[in-house]
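Record 1 of the preview.
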Amino acid sequence: MEDAGRLADLLDHHMWNEERKDLIHEVCKLAKRCLSIVGKERPTMREVVIELDRLTGLQNQSEVMSNPEQTESCITGNNTECSHHRKH
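->
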């Protein structure tokens, strides 16, 4: 996809990887909607929050799938490094 190549050029190379590609693409699509010249095409702040929450959930789900050992230790409380993943 040509857009993905241009997007990868714009982002910090540490952010761009195959695991995050879809998530980054979705965030960029949301940002593009927010920047629409036509006001009726822009999402409300509520819609933005809902979409970002959905995307955050997808990322968390992806992290669980890619690292089940760390997820298990987070669930059991045996890993202090996962405290930043918990909602307060």
